[in-house]
Structure formats: structure tokens, C-alpha cells
Design goal:
single chain, 242 residues, alpha/beta, 6-stranded mixed β-sheet, 5-stranded antiparallel β-sheet
Length: 242
């Protein structure tokens, strides 16, 4: 099963910088698309537009049959109606809630049995079992990241947005978590869009990649194809290829 994602955006900033991108592809269940580029290339703006958090001059966004943005009609679906899971660079855990309560926060309205079952499942998948009664300040950075991820996917959203989720971690922790994150995303079968500047994240986590520079798409396609056949020296440089 796939969910066709269509993104077409054009936005001019006060600085004069123009973001102009358009891409279409299917996000397979469990598939991850990486938006990669240097700082200021526009990748975070795209992610925030997907989340409904960034006003855009002109654009259209739809996932499957769900229309999220159509500026020509003056239509913008509010963020809370987009059935998204989001994990940004700051995990924004609730400091007064335990790990278990943080994860269960997104399951309000579900039965107690259903909440407990889902939380237990996520604790196991993300190697957090035994930490459910701890508070965020009692966790390492990697543990906080995993709790934030569990909360973001607890209700099984249609699309998961990850903004540099590993960037705040030290190198050994980041390396350890890549494999766990990849396995988790495949197991959960939730289509994901990942923003990163790290070529190692692209290689380890993504199935599809969109390479950006100065608000433009340099190349887009299956990760393996782009890595094997970079379209330009800029693409090669951004993916840190020899």
C-alpha cells in the first residue's frame, strides 16, 4: 500500500530568497524520504509547510486523497486535522509527566486497555522497557529522543515528520540509534519525511531522497539511484560522496 505525496511550493522570503520546489512520489508504508541540503536550503520550510506551521505564498500539498494545502482556493487544513506525527530537534517532552504518560498523551480518548497495550508495545520496540516511571530529566539524550518518537507515532499517524532527530546527540549515540530508528520505522509501517544535513542519515534511514540547494531541487529519486548516479558535483558534495 502506498500514499502518493504531492508537494508544490513557492515562497519568497523578505531577504529575497525564493523557495520553489515540486515533487511527486509514493511513500510506501514504512518508507522514508529524506530532504537533504545545507543550512538555508529550504528543507525545514518544506517540513513546516507539511505540518501546516509555515505560511506559503503559493502551493499545493496532498497525501493520497487528503488535501492539506491549496493556495489558489485559499484552503489550508489546520495542523491538528492533518493526522501527523512530528518530532523536531527539541523533543519537547512534558517535564512533569513520566515516560509512560508522555507516550500515552497522544492516545487520549482511547480505552485504558488500548493505551496501556500501545505504550507497552512502543516501550519494547524502542528499548525503553523499565524506564516508564522515570521523568524526562532522568533520561539520557538518546532516551529522550526515543520517548519523543514513541509519543509522535503512538496513534499511528498517516505521516511522520522528523526534523534532524539525531543532531542533538553525540556521535556514538547517533550511530547506535540509526539502526534502531530504521528498524522501528519499518516495523511501524508509517510513511516518514526526514530532514537532515547528514549524509549518514540519508544512507541509513531513507528509501527516497530529495537533494536541495538554495531553495531548488537538484535531484530527487530512490536513494540507491541518487547515490549511484548523482546528477551533478553539487549533489555529490551534499551527499559527501568521493
Amino acid at each position: 500500500m502506498t500514499s502518493p505525496l504531492h508537494v508544490a511550493l513557492r515562497h519568497r522570503y523578505r531577504s529575497g530568497f525564493v523557495l520553489e520546489v515540486e515533487f511527486d512520489h509514493s511513500l510506501s508504508q514504512g518508507g522514508t524520504t529524506a530532504l537533504v541540503g545545507a543550512s538555508g536550503s529550504g528543507k525545514s520550510t518544506i517540513l513546516r509547510a507539511l505540518a501546516g506551521l509555515e505560511p506559503i505564498d503559493t502551493g499545493r500539498i496532498c497525501l493520497g486523497e487528503d488535501l492539506w494545502l491549496e493556495t489558489s482556493r485559499g484552503f489550508t487544513l489546520p495542523p491538528q486535522q492533518r493526522d501527523l506525527g512530528c518530532l523536531f530537534q527539541e523533543y519537547s517532552l512534558f517535564p512533569h509527566l513520566t515516560v509512560q504518560s508522555n507516550i500515552a498523551f497522544g492516545l487520549r480518548g482511547r480505552s485504558r486497555i488500548e493505551r496501556d497495550r500501545r505504550v507497552a508495545e512502543l516501550l519494547d520496540l524502542l528499548q525503553l522497557a523499565g524506564l516508564q516511571r522515570r521523568y524526562p530529566h532522568e533520561l539520557s539524550g538518546g532516551q529522550q529522543q526515543r520517548v519523543g518518537l514513541a509519543r509522535a507515532v503512538a496513534r499511528r499517524p498517516k505521516l511522520l515528520l522528523l526534523d534532524e532527530p539525531l543532531s542533538a546527540l553525540d556521535t556514538p549515540t547517533r550511530n547506535d540509534l540509526r539502526g534502531l530508528l530504521r528498524t522501528f520505522l519499518v516495523t511501524e509501517q508509517i510513511p516518514t519525511v526526514l530532514v537532515t544535513h547528514d549524509p549518514a542519515d540519508v544512507r541509513a534511514l531513507s528509501d527516497h531522497v530529495v537533494v536541495l540547494e538554495e531553495g531548488q531541487i537538484l535531484q530527487a529519486g530512490p536513494t540507491a539511484d541518487v547515490l549511484q548516479f548523482p546528477a551533478s558535483s553539487q549533489v555529490r558534495r551534499l551527499l559527501a560522496m568521493p
